[in-house]
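> example.struct
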């Protein structure tokens, strides 16, 4: 009798699976056949105790096989229902766009600066960010009482050891190793104790250049910088050199370009003077030449330096220097 009941259950299962069209119908089948209280298969298993030992083993094995088959067939039926309910995928449609990374605007501008000067015959050099007083100040003719050497301006790591405040220290290291003529540019991160705001940052990037050889004059400096400024900005520029003071150059000048907003007529962007300051420059001070073993009676040179962030802000119309450090993808994806 139990064998006939198992065969009957198999037939009922096949009939029920063929008619089931929903998850609810499959759940009703599961309860009907495998439910603990009223499941048809459990009725058979509970009756095994009344069978002879030989029949008990045979019927029990057949019931367990049927239980596994019912569970498997119910799961297969659920998978078919889910697959039928899933929306069709049109494989001919294009996939979602993949967002790729971009070079940082400071990287783009830095590479462009180096490229412009390499085409003018300058070589690229690098130097350490952790410097000594000598290379950062002494060799550059900066007196011991200069305010730039104070703790409120410079990050000191130990007595006489600091994070460089400018890349001018690279000039000293290069001139100590190489004899004139020297034409080099350098680019790197610098550090100063500036409060963070829209136009200042305690960490920034500086680009600097040096040319030392016989007969170099301020006229050469003006010619090189005028050519550079014409190439780096995507708009026509006029330049203005105004007297300035730096310990390591004499004479010294600050260089401005005509404001791209007002074309040098004066507006809030340029402080109503028509020009934006972009860099400092000058003829290398004779004491600096002597400090590296050069004879200022035989060779002369010029140097210049600028903030890469400053150039990028003018070039791309960026109003806040802090955007360079935030790594906001919406900001970075504007540059390519």
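> example.seq
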């Amino acid at each position: 009798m139990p064998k006939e009941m198992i065969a009957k259950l198999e037939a009922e299962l096949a009939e029920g699976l063929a008619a089931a069209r929903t998850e609810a119908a499959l759940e009703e089948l599961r309860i009907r056949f495998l439910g603990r209280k009223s499941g048809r298969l459990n009725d058979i298993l509970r009756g095994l105790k009344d069978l002879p030992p030989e029949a008990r083993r045979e019927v029990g094995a057949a019931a367990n096989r049927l239980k596994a088959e019912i569970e498997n067939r119910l799961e297969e039926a659920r998978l078919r229902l889910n697959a039928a309910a899933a929306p069709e995928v049109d494989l001919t449609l294009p996939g979602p766009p993949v967002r790729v990374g971009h070079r940082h605007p400071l990287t783009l501008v830095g590479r462009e600066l180096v490229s412009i000067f390499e085409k003018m015959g300058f070589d690229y050099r690098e130097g350490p960010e952790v410097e000594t007083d000598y290379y950062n100040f002494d060799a550059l003719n900066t007196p011991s009482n200069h305010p730039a050497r104070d703790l409120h301006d410079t990050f000191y790591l130990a007595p006489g050891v600091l994070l460089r405040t400018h890349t001018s220290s690279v000039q000293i290291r290069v001139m100590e190793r190489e004899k004139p003529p020297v034409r080099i540019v350098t680019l790197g991160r610098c550090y100063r104790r500036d409060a963070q705001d829209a136009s200042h940052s305690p960490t920034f990037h500086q680009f600097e250049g040096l040319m030392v050889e016989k007969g170099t004059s301020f006229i050469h400096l003006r010619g090189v910088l005028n050519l550079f400024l014409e190439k780096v900005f995507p708009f026509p520029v006029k330049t203005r050199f105004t007297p300035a003071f730096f310990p390591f150059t004499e004479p010294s000048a600050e260089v401005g370009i005509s404001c791209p907003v007002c074309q040098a007529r004066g507006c809030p962007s340029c402080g109503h003077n028509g020009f934006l300051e972009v860099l400092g420059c000058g003829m290398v001070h004779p004491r600096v030449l002597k400090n590296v073993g050069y004879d200022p009676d035989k060779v002369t040179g010029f140097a210049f330096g600028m903030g890469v962030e400053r150039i990028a802000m003018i070039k791309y119309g960026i109003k806040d220097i802090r955007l360079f450090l935030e790594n906001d993808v919406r900001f970075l994806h504007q540059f390519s």
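> remarks
The radius of gyration is 40 Å.
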